[in-house]
Specification:
With 701 residues, this protein is an alpha+beta fold. Helix content is 37%, strand content 18%.
Length: 701
């Protein structure tokens, strides 16, 4: 009897141990199939997983409240490993989903680093450092050699994933590539959340996929950026997945690994305001996919709204006017010789003089930011480089629009006076013994000269001969007195060759001086000679500046030497517009102490340009008094083509409010660029509304 009881106890314990072992094995498989940090096994028939819920990014608006970028609801297809692999035929179910996605035109992405066609080839080197790291972790988890070939990897995974022998190569590859993504979620240390098969799926497509009833395939709500204008493409920027390097920075700010961040433009510059805070949601599902429990540990907090200094209607006017002038140049040219038919790209920037706020900033050619990702390959190979932000990144010879620098230096440092006279002889022969005899443009074009003129008249007529002479006299007089370059001092304080303060990436260009030349060249070419001095005096030599710098320079001239930091940020408000987070306060970047005589000279001279000088045919009858300067940059005949054209303006001349800088590559004549400025001035000074403009047909705004 005792023996029978002991036998029964032994059988009971054995059965209990077997059941415990079975449940332990099942639990191990569940845990092994999911990331430790994301999934929690409640019991053998359910699992709890965590989802990072990205907060909606803040809106981007113009200064008048027009929404430029917002969000719209979207839906993603997500696969829950635990549910899919508890179904009877996970491979077949997965194949059905993928083939339907192909039929419906639903794009799905896998980071499986093997080409889709035979002979298989590894593509690991083409991936980001982040995904290369995930691939190495995947190999280590399976005890595969780090240098395994693509052929062997595919053979091994065919067996490991139990891919049927009667499947086509295409079918096998589809399922393996997605199963690779799913398996990565189980690899220790990777920390990826549930695999998102497809993003921003249309309602009809979602319905078709969900009708399949495949266990583990679910729909999750999300948001995507929506662009409400086709303008300002070079400014607004885009968002995307973080690189490994970016994640190292952003994780310290609490960003989830799958967070989207600003990659360029305004989206990147104001990322800290726009991003918001992610939420964490926990969901418990049964093996059959039923949701047993769901709760937020932390609710997502939307990002703040960023209001830009840009005025959308003025931006539209600026972009349209720039495009019209460049296309007209290509068709008709300008002047008696119809130069400029080879015009390429250009830029225009509009700034509020007394605040530094940028009202419009346009580059041409441009593109549609809403379709940037789809169009990228075409855009990067397109003529004239439409992706190039010329306003902030192009460094151009300014030409004669630099001459106000030389004039100020001549009066305040060279002590020559605004009525100092020089007789233009057409050919400047001071350095003839060195074989250098530059010509005034009027001599080159007509064989005439400007005669005897003073500084105001020299600005009016843009006489190179005059500025060769006063530039030389000023430079050597001040160098002998102090050892410093007077023109360089003035140019620097007016913002040329300096950061403007703008929040987007910008280049700073170079100022022509001995130090710059020594840094740029070697040997005898690195020497600083008299020829360099007089070329620098007319905005040539190594003077190269961006249109953004040129507009800040123009504003500083209008402000009698006071230069404000340029900015695109008007203010930041909370997501519900109830709280002011930050507001722009004008900040002085530099201040050139300019004498009344120097200011009177450049102000009068620039007004004469508009009424009697090189821009008179465009602006002489304009109802608002303006101060402006034309420029023609001779960029090297060895390259062929028309000269570059530059133009700067501020208005009203007697109470400056806005400054404009325009540059067109191979634009031939600076005066013609007044045709870009006139529509902008009309819009800004409109009597009905300060910024009201007529929108073109069939354009978003």
């Amino acid at each position: 009897m005792q023996r029978l009881i002991r036998f029964r106890i032994f059988v009971f314990l054995a059965l209990t141990a077997a059941l415990i072992g079975l449940f332990a094995l099942r639990l191990y498989k569940v845990q092994a199939a999911q990331s430790d940090s994301t999934y929690i096994a409640d019991d053998a028939d359910s699992i709890t997983y965590m989802t990072t819920v990205e907060a909606s990014r803040g809106n981007i608006l113009d200064r008048n409240g027009n929404v430029l970028i917002s969000n719209r609801a979207s839906y993603n297809l997500v696969i829950i490993n635990f549910v899919l692999f508890n179904s009877e035929t996970p491979n077949e179910s997965l194949l059905r989903v993928l083939e339907l996605c192909d039929e419906q035109g639903i794009a799905y992405q896998s980071h499986f680093p093997v080409t889709a066609e035979r002979p298989y080839t590894l593509t690991v080197d083409e991936q980001s450092s982040t995904w290369q790291g995930y691939y190495r972790a995947f190999l280590a988890n399976r005890d595969y050699d780090a240098d395994i070939s693509a052929q062997t990897l595919m053979k091994n995974l065919m067996q490991a994933y139990r891919i049927p022998d009667d499947w086509t190569q295409e079918q096998a590859y589809k399922v393996i590539s997605v199963r690779y993504e799913l398996e990565l979620r189980s690899v220790s240390g990777v920390g990826l959340e549930n695999y998102t098969l497809a993003t921003d799926v249309q309602a009809e497509q979602l319905a078709a996929v969900m009708e399949l009833g495949v266990p583990g395939v679910i729909v999750e709500a999300s948001t995507v950026r929506e662009y409400n204008t086709t303008y300002a493409a070079h400014l607004l920027g885009s968002i995307g997945q973080m690189t490994a390097e970016e994640y190292e920075v952003y994780k310290e700010q609490g960003y989830a690994m799958n967070a989207l961040v600003g990659k360029d433009g305004i989206e990147k510059a104001f990322e800290s305001y726009l991003h918001g805070s992610s939420g964490r949601k926990y969901t418990t599902v049964s093996a059959s996919g039923d949701v047993l429990n769901e709760y937020f540990e932390e609710l997502p907090q939307p990002g703040n709204n960023v209001e830009l200094t840009i005025d959308l209607s003025l931006q539209m006017t600026a972009e349209d006017a720039l495009e019209d002038v460049i296309l007209d140049l290509r068709e008709n040219g300008v002047g008696r010789k119809s130069e400029g038919k080879d015009a390429e790209g250009g830029a225009v920037v509009v700034q509020e003089v007394k605040t530094g706020e940028i009202l419009a900033c346009a580059s041409y050619p441009t593109f549609n930011i809403a379709t940037y990702s789809q169009d990228f390959n075409e855009l990067k190979d397109a003529d004239y480089d439409p992706l190039y932000n010329r306003a902030l990144l192009a460094e151009y010879w300014p030409g004669s629009i630099y001459k106000m620098v030389t004039a100020i230096a001549a009066i305040d440092y060279g002590k020559l006076g605004e009525f100092y006279e020089v007789t233009c002889k057409g050919i400047y022969d001071y350095y003839k013994d060195q074989g250098y005899t530059p010509k005034c443009y009027v001599w080159t074009s007509s064989g005439t000269t400007h005669g005897t003129i003073n500084m105001q008249q020299a600005l009016q007529e843009s006489c190179n001969y005059y500025f060769y002479e006063v530039g030389r006299l000023t430079y050597y007089a001040y160098v002998q007195q102090t050892g410093e370059n007077a023109m360089d001092i003035v140019a620097k304080q007016l913002g040329l060759g300096e950061h403007t303060g703008v929040e987007l990436t910008e280049y700073v260009g170079t100022r022509a001086n001995a130090e710059t030349k020594a840094a740029l060249y070697s040997g005898t070419d690195a020497g600083w000679y008299g020829a360099d001095v007089i070329q620098a005096a007319i905005g040539q030599s190594d003077n190269k500046f961006t249109p953004m710098q040129l507009v800040c320079y123009t504003s500083a001239l209008a402000n009698k030497g006071v230069r404000y930091n340029a900015t695109f940020l008007k203010r930041v408000v909370s997501w519900d517009y109830q709280e002011l987070i930050e507001s722009h306060t004008p900040t002085i970047a530099s201040h050139l102490e300019m004498s009344d005589e120097a200011f009177d000279c450049i102000s009068t001279g620039m007004q004469l340009v508009a009424t009697k000088g090189t821009a008179a045919q465009y602006l002489a009858d304009y109802p608002i008094k303006v101060a402006c300067k034309t420029g023609t940059a001779q960029w090297g005949n060895e390259y062929g083509g028309s000269d570059h054209a530059s133009f700067v303006l501020y208005a009203p001349a007697d109470d400056p409010q806005i400054a404009i800088a325009v540059y067109v590559e191979k634009g031939a004549q600076g005066g013609n660029l007044a045709n870009v400025c006139i529509p902008i001035l009309n819009a800004y000074f409109s009597s009905s509304s300060k910024y009201e403009t007529v929108l073109r047909e069939n354009t978003a705004g």
